[in-house]
Specification:
This protein is mostly helical. The protein is built from five helices and two strands; from the N terminus they run H-E-H-H-H-H-E. It has helices at 11-32, 43-66, 75-101, 104-129, 136-148; strands at 37-39, 153-156. Strands 1-2 form a two-stranded antiparallel sheet. The longest helix is centred in the middle third of the chain and has 27 residues, at 75-101. The protein is elongated, with a radius of gyration of 24 Å.
Length: 157
Protein backbone atom coordinates (compact mmCIF):
# COMPACT_ATOMS: atom_id res chain seq x y z
CA UNK A 1 0.00 0.00 0.00
CA UNK A 2 1.41 3.32 -1.07
CA UNK A 3 1.22 6.31 1.19
CA UNK A 4 0.53 9.63 -0.36
CA UNK A 5 2.26 12.65 1.08
CA UNK A 6 -0.18 14.87 3.03
CA UNK A 7 0.33 17.74 0.57
CA UNK A 8 -0.59 15.66 -2.49
CA UNK A 9 -3.94 16.66 -3.85
CA UNK A 10 -6.49 14.50 -5.57
CA UNK A 11 -7.23 15.08 -9.25
CA UNK A 12 -10.86 15.82 -8.36
CA UNK A 13 -9.82 18.55 -5.94
CA UNK A 14 -7.60 20.15 -8.56
CA UNK A 15 -10.41 19.98 -11.10
CA UNK A 16 -12.88 21.56 -8.67
CA UNK A 17 -10.45 24.37 -7.88
CA UNK A 18 -9.72 24.95 -11.57
CA UNK A 19 -13.45 25.09 -12.32
CA UNK A 20 -13.97 27.59 -9.49
CA UNK A 21 -11.17 29.81 -10.85
CA UNK A 22 -12.63 29.60 -14.34
CA UNK A 23 -16.11 30.50 -13.10
CA UNK A 24 -14.79 33.46 -11.07
CA UNK A 25 -12.80 34.68 -14.05
CA UNK A 26 -15.86 34.56 -16.31
CA UNK A 27 -17.95 36.43 -13.75
CA UNK A 28 -15.21 39.07 -13.51
CA UNK A 29 -15.13 39.43 -17.29
CA UNK A 30 -18.89 39.71 -17.47
CA UNK A 31 -18.82 42.69 -15.13
CA UNK A 32 -16.53 44.46 -17.58
CA UNK A 33 -18.50 43.67 -20.69
CA UNK A 34 -21.77 45.55 -20.33
CA UNK A 35 -22.75 47.40 -23.47
CA UNK A 36 -23.49 51.10 -23.50
CA UNK A 37 -24.94 53.49 -26.07
CA UNK A 38 -22.62 55.44 -28.34
CA UNK A 39 -23.79 59.03 -28.77
CA UNK A 40 -23.31 61.10 -31.90
CA UNK A 41 -21.59 64.40 -31.03
CA UNK A 42 -24.50 66.63 -32.08
CA UNK A 43 -25.04 70.16 -30.78
CA UNK A 44 -26.87 68.96 -27.64
CA UNK A 45 -24.13 66.47 -26.77
CA UNK A 46 -21.45 69.11 -27.24
CA UNK A 47 -23.35 71.67 -25.17
CA UNK A 48 -23.88 69.41 -22.14
CA UNK A 49 -20.52 67.59 -22.21
CA UNK A 50 -19.51 64.01 -21.57
CA UNK A 51 -20.15 64.00 -17.83
CA UNK A 52 -23.77 65.13 -18.13
CA UNK A 53 -24.28 62.74 -21.05
CA UNK A 54 -22.98 59.84 -18.90
CA UNK A 55 -25.40 60.84 -16.13
CA UNK A 56 -28.27 60.98 -18.64
CA UNK A 57 -27.35 57.52 -19.96
CA UNK A 58 -27.42 56.11 -16.42
CA UNK A 59 -30.76 57.81 -15.73
CA UNK A 60 -32.25 56.32 -18.90
CA UNK A 61 -30.88 52.86 -18.02
CA UNK A 62 -32.46 53.06 -14.56
CA UNK A 63 -35.74 54.24 -16.07
CA UNK A 64 -35.71 51.27 -18.48
CA UNK A 65 -35.09 48.83 -15.62
CA UNK A 66 -37.82 50.40 -13.47
CA UNK A 67 -40.22 49.96 -16.40
CA UNK A 68 -39.40 46.24 -16.50
CA UNK A 69 -36.85 46.07 -19.31
CA UNK A 70 -33.88 43.95 -18.25
CA UNK A 71 -30.46 44.68 -19.68
CA UNK A 72 -29.06 41.15 -19.69
CA UNK A 73 -32.10 38.91 -19.61
CA UNK A 74 -31.78 35.48 -21.13
CA UNK A 75 -28.20 34.74 -20.06
CA UNK A 76 -29.16 31.99 -17.64
CA UNK A 77 -31.43 30.42 -20.24
CA UNK A 78 -28.61 30.36 -22.78
CA UNK A 79 -26.30 28.67 -20.27
CA UNK A 80 -28.93 26.07 -19.37
CA UNK A 81 -29.66 25.37 -23.03
CA UNK A 82 -25.94 24.95 -23.75
CA UNK A 83 -25.60 22.52 -20.86
CA UNK A 84 -28.57 20.40 -21.94
CA UNK A 85 -27.54 20.36 -25.59
CA UNK A 86 -23.95 19.50 -24.63
CA UNK A 87 -25.18 16.68 -22.41
CA UNK A 88 -27.34 15.25 -25.19
CA UNK A 89 -24.58 15.41 -27.77
CA UNK A 90 -22.10 13.91 -25.30
CA UNK A 91 -24.47 11.07 -24.43
CA UNK A 92 -24.95 10.23 -28.09
CA UNK A 93 -21.21 10.35 -28.78
CA UNK A 94 -20.49 8.32 -25.65
CA UNK A 95 -23.06 5.70 -26.64
CA UNK A 96 -21.42 5.32 -30.04
CA UNK A 97 -17.99 5.05 -28.45
CA UNK A 98 -19.34 2.63 -25.85
CA UNK A 99 -20.96 0.49 -28.54
CA UNK A 100 -17.62 0.18 -30.28
CA UNK A 101 -15.81 -0.77 -27.06
CA UNK A 102 -18.67 -2.96 -25.77
CA UNK A 103 -19.95 -0.75 -22.93
CA UNK A 104 -22.81 1.38 -24.23
CA UNK A 105 -24.21 2.33 -20.80
CA UNK A 106 -21.04 3.61 -19.20
CA UNK A 107 -19.92 5.17 -22.48
CA UNK A 108 -23.09 7.21 -22.74
CA UNK A 109 -22.90 8.25 -19.07
CA UNK A 110 -19.31 9.42 -19.46
CA UNK A 111 -20.20 11.15 -22.72
CA UNK A 112 -23.24 12.85 -21.18
CA UNK A 113 -21.22 14.14 -18.23
CA UNK A 114 -18.41 15.34 -20.47
CA UNK A 115 -20.83 16.97 -22.92
CA UNK A 116 -22.78 18.65 -20.12
CA UNK A 117 -19.61 20.14 -18.66
CA UNK A 118 -18.50 21.30 -22.11
CA UNK A 119 -21.95 22.79 -22.80
CA UNK A 120 -21.96 24.52 -19.41
CA UNK A 121 -18.52 26.04 -19.89
CA UNK A 122 -19.13 27.20 -23.45
CA UNK A 123 -22.57 28.51 -22.47
CA UNK A 124 -21.03 30.46 -19.59
CA UNK A 125 -18.36 31.87 -21.85
CA UNK A 126 -20.74 32.99 -24.57
CA UNK A 127 -23.31 34.37 -22.13
CA UNK A 128 -21.00 36.17 -19.75
CA UNK A 129 -17.54 36.64 -21.22
CA UNK A 130 -18.42 37.06 -24.86
CA UNK A 131 -19.66 40.27 -26.36
CA UNK A 132 -22.56 41.42 -24.22
CA UNK A 133 -25.48 43.00 -26.03
CA UNK A 134 -28.54 44.05 -24.04
CA UNK A 135 -31.92 42.76 -25.15
CA UNK A 136 -33.85 44.68 -27.79
CA UNK A 137 -36.56 46.05 -25.48
CA UNK A 138 -33.94 47.51 -23.15
CA UNK A 139 -31.92 49.17 -25.92
CA UNK A 140 -35.07 50.56 -27.55
CA UNK A 141 -36.19 52.04 -24.24
CA UNK A 142 -32.81 53.65 -23.50
CA UNK A 143 -32.50 54.92 -27.09
CA UNK A 144 -35.91 56.60 -26.95
CA UNK A 145 -35.21 58.13 -23.55
CA UNK A 146 -31.93 59.58 -24.80
CA UNK A 147 -33.55 60.81 -28.00
CA UNK A 148 -36.19 62.65 -25.98
CA UNK A 149 -33.36 64.35 -24.05
CA UNK A 150 -31.81 65.55 -27.32
CA UNK A 151 -29.13 62.90 -27.97
CA UNK A 152 -28.62 60.80 -31.09
CA UNK A 153 -27.66 57.17 -30.42
CA UNK A 154 -25.56 55.70 -33.19
CA UNK A 155 -25.31 52.18 -31.73
CA UNK A 156 -24.26 50.11 -28.74
CA UNK A 157 -20.93 48.56 -27.79
Amino acid sequence: MRHRPPYAEKAGDRMKRSFAYLLCGMCFLSACSTAHPILYPNAHMQSVGKEVAAQDIEACKQLAESAGAEEGSGKAGRVATGTVVGGGIGAAAGAVGGAISGSVGSGSMIGAATGAVWGLLTGLYHAFAGPSQPNQAYTNFVNRCLQEKGYEVTGWQ
